[in-house]
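User: Good morning. I'm curious how GFB would be positioned relative to this chain. Could you predict the structure with it bound?
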Amino acid sequence: MAAPMRVLVTGGSGLLGKAVEHVVLKEGGKLEGEEWVFLSSKDADLTDLDQTKAVFERYRPTHVIHLAAKVGGLYLHMRENLHFLRDNLKINDNVLETAHQTGVTKVVSCLSSCIFPDKTTYPIDETMIHNGPPHDSNFGYSHAKRMIDVQNRAYFAQYGRRYTAVIPTNVFGPYDNFNIENGHVLSALMNKTYKAKKEGTPVTVCGSGAPMRQFVYSLDLGRLIVWVLREYDEISPIILSVNEEDEVRIRDAMGMIVEALGFEGEVRYDTSLSDGQIKKTASNAKLRRYRPDFTFTPLREAIQMTCDWFAANYDSART
Ligand code: NAP
Ligand code: GFB
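Assistant: Good morning! Here's the predicted structure, ligand included:
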């Protein structure tokens, strides 16, 4: 019989943490002998080493899924690059070093496809993380996240620790941050469109709508992260994304939101605002080698489910 596994999920109250929780507790993903603990910042501020040590001491995990981070959309990054850098450097170092000190056998941390070099060839793959500076808009977050990959390699080289990371593209779903100023594009546009419909006003998309993104539904990602924890044995990271041909323009994704929410008003584009990265097309070839049959929820369907969730949970959603 496999040794019992006690999994600590940092960032367990966020978009991705809630998705992992759903997969494990509601879809029957929890195996016999497993214990899962989902943390929020109320359990421990992971920028603080003493609080990090105390929470590890309390739960004594054998495995960690490390999702906690200072997270936000393009415009929050542009305003707070320093905070993204410092908070995430502290959180990641505290979690990885405490995991090492307390004998955690596996850590799966979370990078992001926005950390890849800005000037690059496409598609981007896992070998290219450190090949040049990231896009200027989120250089703080990107450098902090890149260091997780460096630390994972160093923990393996020096101590034989099998700590790894996943690299999701743009994620969305239930429990996302729907704040209009700070959120990511789909959640912010869902909230804006929902409000515009209620108030009978036009809705404004930031930028030109031309940039391309590969959107992943959070529950699909939750399933993949649980698989990585159990089965993926490499130290080097793995991109978790839909196929390259499923990349869409922001403008097209907005069309799906408009349809999902039944919005009949005018959609405007404010081209005075930054477009951020025009594209960051990532290859999921490595994922496909391991999981050739994994099915991602079609974007239109996932947008419909997220809009329905937002409308049904408007009063408690993060807005
Ligand atoms: P999220 O919804 O904003 O959740 C962030 C989580 O981190 C929350 O549980 C939050 O706790 C926790 N947290 C933040 N600061 C903390 C601190 N100082 N101490 C302890 N916990 C803290 O973010 P998400 O979208 O789920 O992101 C999860 C991971 O995926 C992150 O590592 C992010 O970089 C990565 N990622 C996200 C995307 C995306 O498009 N969303 C794409 C690629 C990668 P509270 O709820 O208590 O605040
Ligand atoms: O999700 P997002 O903020 O981040 O998307 P990134 C930004 C893109 O969506 C830009 C357009 O092209 C924006 O012009 N957009 C249109 C909007 N309307 C809106 C809106 O109302 N709000 C927002 N936020 N964007 C992120 C990183 O980059 O990549 C994150 O900043 C994260 O940290 C994510 O890692 C995966 O895709 O540009």
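Residues 6-312 form a domain with the Rossmann fold fold (CATH 3.40.50.720). The mean pLDDT is 96.
Let me know if you'd like a different ligand tried.
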